[in-house]
Amino acid sequence: MKILGVLGGLGPMASAYFLQLIVQMSEAAADQEHMEVLLHSMPRIPDRTRYILGQSAENPMPLMAKAGRGLADQGAEVLAIPCITAHYFQRQLEEEIGIPILNAVWETAACLEEAGVKRVGILATDGTLASRLFQTCLEQHHISCMVPGEQDQESVMHLIYENVKAGKPVEFPLFQAVSDRLFAQGAQVILLACTELSLVKRDHILGPGFLDVLEVLARKAVLCCGSLKKEYENLVTQAAGHC
Fold it and tell me: DSSP code of 54?
């Protein structure tokens, strides 16, 4: 089995949950049957969204590349980055680090296409939306995308930065209101396309129609470096009335 390197700390709680998902999804009857994982948690890496939007001159690339090279030097054969906005830097990171990086965006598009989904809503950071990481990829798979309106997007950023990243409880009614409006626009599936939002699904019962991109990344990591439990082969569910 290949050794997985995890470039973490972006943010720390999402990285910890990613490791939990890997263990949870692995088909293993003993400790020795689990996959080998190397983690470098580097929370001091500058904010990715602020850099992408031109709100900060602090480029996160040098520290991400440094952490990735360190993981490769320790034996990692493939990398996962449990931060969706950081996927903006993937090609440059692969060139600098020299080993492949799993792409949660591509994997999500493949899952949705296989499930026959045609319309998705995207909950993500301003940086992820502005870079069109998901929109461009999904449109290539003939999947139409919906994003929150300006006020709702402010609410999404509040949930990410002022709730989860700040270590505070999620204002769940706010999350529900934003999601309900995307479903009302015809979204069959809403993507939790920020790893902080994955913690909303971890801590609350969301029901069908939500796809956690961190789960998609964890599933791919286990398929690549370990053995996947059968119940995690299909992660896509669609909202009632929008199939």
Answer: T
- Say what percent of the chain tops pLDDT 70: 98
Catalytic residues: 83, 194
DSSP class of residue 113 equals H
Helix (H, G, I), strand (E, B) or coil at 232: helix
Does 37 map to a domain? yes
Beta carbons of 164 and 196 less than 8 angstroms apart? yes
pLDDT at 79 over 80: yes
Rg of the chain's alpha carbons, rounded to an integer? 17
- Arithmetic mean of pLDDT over the chain: 96
Q: CATH number for the domain including 192?
A: 3.40.50.1860
**In whole angstroms, what is the distance from residue 136 CA to residue 148 CA?**
17
Does any domain span residue 35?
yes
Q: What angle do CA 223, 13, 197 make, to 5 degrees?
A: 75
Domain around 114: 104-214
Instruction: Kindly report, residue by residue over 187-235, the tens digit of the pLDDT.
Output: 999 999 999 999 999 999 999 999 999 999 999 999 999 999 999 999 9
Q: How far apart are CA 41 and CA 79, in angstroms?
A: 13
